Amino acid sequence: MSLKAIHVLFIVASTVLALGFSGWGFNNYFSSEGAAADLAYGIGSASAGIGLVVYGCYFLKKLKNISYL
Amino acid sequence: MEIPYTVHPREDTGLYNAKLGIWLFLASEVMLFGALFSSYILLRVGAAPGAWPHGLLNIPIGTLNTLVLITSSVTVVMAWASLKMNQLSRFKIYQSLTVLFALIFVCIKSFEYHDKFTHYEVVLKDGKSMTGHIEGSPMFWNLTKLNANKIASITFTPDAAHGAPDAKSEGTAASSAHGEPTKIATSDILKLECFGPFHNTYLAIYFTLTALHALHVIGGAIVIAYILLTAGRWWKKNPEQLTNRVEVSGLFWHFVDLVWIFLFPVLYLL
After folding, report:
1. What CA–CA distance (Å, rounded) separates B155 from B160?
2. Structural domain that includes position A57
3. Where exactly does CATH 1.20.120.80 map onto chain B?
4. Does A18 reside within a domain?
5. Rounded mean pLDDT of chain B?
6. Topology of the domain comprising B18-41+57-116+200-269
7. Do B251 and A21 touch (CB under 8 A)?
8. In angstroms, how far apart are the furthest CA atoms of chain A?
């Protein structure tokens, strides 16, 4: 497995983390003890998740000639 | 005798020596961190209901460190891609940025550790207990040290839960919002302990996991810096071997980053 393949795996894991963190933030915000910081976590990490998906597509396009092995 | 497959991959495996070596090494690393993660999970599910501490760590700082490491994984792969495209100067920029991000990560982590070593729990002889900071932010103080240094009293600033405005509503970390400083006589103290690895089981496993991870970050940064400093010579001598070296160090760096991707939610959020 090359660095390209492990990087794709890493970006997928990071995207899952960002979306999970976003869900955690929104869930806390809409609970009875919700704070403005939780909303910021939710919005910020959802944006980061979208950014990572966009970056992943750019990366695959840029390195399409390099093998996964 | 010349060692085969140092640069070009072996036909049947598709791997050159260094890549096979790093994957074997990473397999052993997975077992090491896997054992520690398993320990954490077993300790947590085995804890009495409500006994596992929450909110001890600073989430904004953890989030910042996560962003730093994700960005460093982008720069490390871009450095490798630059060499693949024969752009040595661009490689040097990306490789330097990776080392810089590693240093930023370690600096932030040490700040976080310092915060824990200057954050105390004090138990008084009348049964009252509170957490907070001692004036002057000394590290690793305890009752024995107070008595040995003949310190008659300490000025203690309690955390939010003991009278200060609610930290969460202020959007700050729990340890950064404080109540009014109070003077406590050493003779009234039953126990004084900072939030070090000896304080409770959670902090013991937290420091074990994060310190081991930080050591990996430092080790990786040293290797990446070494490759950066010797890149010019290797580029002239054998550019393909340099590219392979960068790929192998990048594989290690991605492993270190992946460990953090698991550590962050487990330690800071759940």
Report:
1. 16
2. 3-62
3. 18-41+57-116+200-269
4. yes
5. 91
6. Four Helix Bundle (Hemerythrin (Met), subunit A) (1.20.120)
7. no
8. 52
Which two three-digit tokens encode residue B80? 């490798």
Interchain pair A41, B14: CB under 8 A:
no
Assess: ipTM above 0.90: yes
Q: Is there a contact between B217 and B106 (Cβ–Cβ < 8 Å)?
A: yes
Strand order in the sheet with B119-124: B182-185, B153-158, B129-134, B119-124, B189-194
Predicted confidence (pLDDT) per residue in A12-65, tens digit: 999 999 999 999 999 999 998 888 999 999 999 999 999 999 999 999 998 888
CA terminus-to-terminus distance, chain A: 4
Min Cα separation A36/chain B (Å): 7
- Using a 10 angstrom Cβ sphere, with 0-12 exposed, 13-18 middle and 19 or more buried, the burial of residue B110 is exposed
Domain count for chain A: 1
Nearest CB to A66; choose among B73, B84, B257: B84
